[in-house]
Amino acid sequence: MAEGEERETGKRKKLRYDFLESPSIKFFCSLCHDILFDPQLSTCCRVSYCEPCIKQLKINEEPCPVCSDKRFPIRPDPGLKEELDALRVHCINNGCHWTGRVKDLEQHLNTLTGDCGYALVSCRYNCGMTFIRKDATKHVCNDSNSTEMHLVCPCTAIGCTSFNNERRRGYSLSRHISDNMEGHLQLLTRYAQSLKEREDAVLMRESNVERVIEEGLREKDGEIAELKESVKELAVLLETKENEILDLNKDVKAFKRASTMLTEERSVQQKAKYNTFERHFIMKDFNLYYQPNAGKLVWNSDPFYTHDKGYKMSFSVDVVFGSLRVSLYLLRGEYDEYLLWPLQGSINILLLNQLNNRNHYTFNFIYDDNTLEEIGNRVKPGRIKSDKNVSASQKLSYDNLLMSSARNVCYLKNNSLVFTVSYINLK
């Protein structure tokens, strides 16, 4: 850290600083290599210099020492100065433990108004002696060789200024006091009057302050009263809203109960719509339909609905070229105008194995976009020929109906076939 000292730079002193931490290279002048004093920035090459160093170069009409620009344009660098002023330093006077910012050091060291107790000052009575500031009182009391120079008129504090001139003419302090009693009395009277005026002014200010405080308190009391009323209104509003929320919660609970009931009802309806209803259809006297001379003899099931208020259907069974043919029809139903058309979904008709409850044969009928319109569409009202649509048909050979020990099946038993609609799944 640098040893503290001062150098004259015109009217101000250029200080050397004792930094708490070593400063960055940017805070040093490129000419004198000391810490920058009133930083100036050369705009030609962006280099910073002390103001006194730049001033000397300008007087000598020298170009920029870095880029040799003869114009050598410069301007103050307030940003860098602000950074420099914020650096922390020790007091440069031996024995002083003060630390602070660079910008505060000059005031700390000021011999007239500074607060450094170790600053070297001269006797204010021009006796020629110097001493550190904290010993000034001791010097006045004990160390002066010109005691008379330290004597002060007791009325100096209230405006007496004549003793210094009289002292130069050889007057003693006692003579000065003796010769100026009337003047001193007038000074005391004026001083007492000024004290009274100041006291009155203070009392007036205190009275004004009290009045302002009282007015402010009254105003605040009014505001507090208004706030209390607002709080009461808000409390009532809050209670109202809480009651509304309770009512809404009751409504929500009621809605949830209704929604749950509706969901359960829909679930029951869906189950009725899509699940098996296990209704058996028995085709008796099968041999009547299988005889070669049976002709076009056809067995028809009773009508059934796919679900509650659903599609009305029936199926037929006949024998064609030695094969059992099952045909499924859409019939005209009383709920047709409320249903979606064409019919979309899947319906299974089982031919039951009468040996056990396994290995039933499934006739699967699918209604989709590929289904012919005359099969899946609604039976139009006023149809002359029939109240049913064209059928969708599937076949099973006669041999597969008979008893088979290997397959453990027997569909034809006691000259009867048993069918059931086992599965309905509609979109």
Automatic annotation (TrEMBL):
The keyword Repeat applies. Residues 108-161 form the TRAF-type domain. It is found in: Cytoplasm. Keywords: Coiled coil, Cytoplasm, Metal-binding, Repeat, Zinc, Zinc-finger. GO terms for cellular component: cytoplasm. GO terms for biological process: regulation of canonical NF-kappaB signal transduction. GO terms for molecular function: zinc ion binding. Its main location: cytoplasm. A zinc finger (TRAF-type) spans 108-161. Residues 29-68 form the RING-type domain. Residues 217-258 form a coiled coil. This is RING-type domain-containing protein. It comes from Amphimedon queenslandica (Sponge). The lineage of its organism: Eukaryota, Metazoa, Porifera, Demospongiae, Heteroscleromorpha.
